[in-house]
Amino acid sequence: MATTNETAGKERSLNFLEEVIENHIANVDNRIHTRFPPEPNGYLHIGHAKSICLNFGLAEKYHGKCNLRFDDTNPVKEDVEYVDSIKADIQWLGFQWAEEHYASDYFEQLYEWAVELIKKGLAYVDDQTQEEIRLTRGTVTEPGKESPWRNRSVEENLDLFARMRAGEFADGEKVLRAKIDMADPNMLLRDPIMYRIIHTSHHRTGDKWCIYPMYDYAHGQSDSIEKITHSICTLEFDVHRPLYDWFIQQLGIFPSHQYEFARLNLTYTVMSKRKLLQLVESKVVNGWDDPRMPTISALRRKGYTPASIRAFADRVGVAKRDNVIDLSLLEFCVREDLNKTAERRMAVLDPIKVVITNYPEGKTEMFTAVNNPEDAAAGTRQVPFSRELYIERGDFMENPPKKYYRLAPGAEVRLRYAYLIKCEEVIKDSEGNIVELRCTYDPQSGEGSSSDGRRVKGVIHWVSVPHAQEAEVRLYSTLFTKEDPNDIEEGKTFLDYLNPESMVIGRAFIEPALQNAQSGDKFQFERIGYFCVDPDSKPGKMVFNRTVSLKDTWAKIADK
């Protein structure tokens, strides 16, 4: 699979799905109806976000409709919790469905159509187990073997199917199969299973049904019932399309048509719902919305914006072959959006105390700070200044190299929004660790000026010690150390590639303007990165998640 960034920053032409739709409008009619059909068996991830943006976006662009339809045909794995989360994610991304449906809405119609196929001699009840069916399906080079029950009479099949519905048989005792061709080169057409028996209560229909349609049988017919004009799926379903078409043709119903595009694969990430569920259930992560997860709810908690995810989906584009997108493109999109929208604040994550020896004790003054230089409407705020400050430990070097512009013995720097200070003395503990810097300030250098007009190149951020509040910061990085954690070496599992430093919890001292921030509020901590207030925050104990660093790694990749 190839890594791609070809669409980034470029004006793109029509993608192949837009060409298909415009041809449909020109030669068929101008009614465009798409759908987004998730199975409610987990939380949506960034790959689903691409599909959401595509299906809803195409309907919006061509003045059509997009339905939300839940593929709720497997009651064992599905739950109303997932239904609710899916709705919330779609709406958070900025979309609203035209109609809300469930495959379970159509169970009676799907059953009647199955009866119709039995009457036509195109479906039969099979007593083989699903494992026996798998073993007799054949291979890509060898035809499958016909079931001993393939040629049951129509009457017997109708009777058995009705009894399956009535609950007379145990799970796995019988299935209903389509009667197509056990020698077809497409193995999905070798008498696929249409119904299986599952004695489990359904989250919507309760115990009304104990037989449930398979995806390949339910999907196309559901599209047809809703008169979907363009059924857009990911590329792995291209081999399913002949079966999709076969059911519609045999039933003579509205001819919805399926189109496939490449699914989204992201570096350092797994997208498999099975693997994501394993991460949650094994408590490798703290739930579906853990900011290390690729779920939409996790990205939201981490501080991503709907605009950044929509921009990412647009930049990724629509392709006909699988590709892997570098994670840095997603980071670029959120960084670009937050730069324009996030207010600036000062916070110190690795503090060292600075004492300004010639500043009056007990004095406090306020300096005006710009909230967002990209947005004049964001206004300003007042930042308190005092004799004792915290600065970042990394902004001081005792023996600096040439062209080092931050604080050093005898060197001068600008405190952001405030004075010039000069380091006069370094205080160490008994083990030689630096514990305090004693500095002097130029009283005439406030807000960008100086007593003699001199300028310094270094500008660092700070927080006033008596006004600072301690907060928790959660610094996230990739959950996996391997670029493709799905490429598993022999004897290992994807869990062997977990990054032990994917979440580092630390502390920060924050300026007063951050003390009343609300869950979900987003900020740029100046010179550090973008952070979001986590729902775990409480009065007096703020928690911030790092969304993304300030460093733009995507630019380097794009220049290659």
From TrEMBL:
A motif ('KMSKS' region) lies at residues 270-274. Its main location: cytoplasm. Residues 32-339 form the Glutamyl/glutaminyl-tRNA synthetase class Ib catalytic domain. It catalyses: tRNA(Gln) + L-glutamine + ATP = L-glutaminyl-tRNA(Gln) + AMP + diphosphate. One of its GO terms (biological process) is glutaminyl-tRNA aminoacylation. Keywords: Aminoacyl-tRNA synthetase, ATP-binding, Cytoplasm, Ligase, Nucleotide-binding, Protein biosynthesis. Residues 459-534 form the tRNA synthetases class I (E and Q) anti-codon binding domain. Residues 342-442 form the Glutamyl/glutaminyl-tRNA synthetase class Ib anti-codon binding domain. Belongs to the class-I aminoacyl-tRNA synthetase family. HAMAP family: Gln_tRNA_synth. This is Glutamine--tRNA ligase. It comes from Candidatus Tidjanibacter faecipullorum.
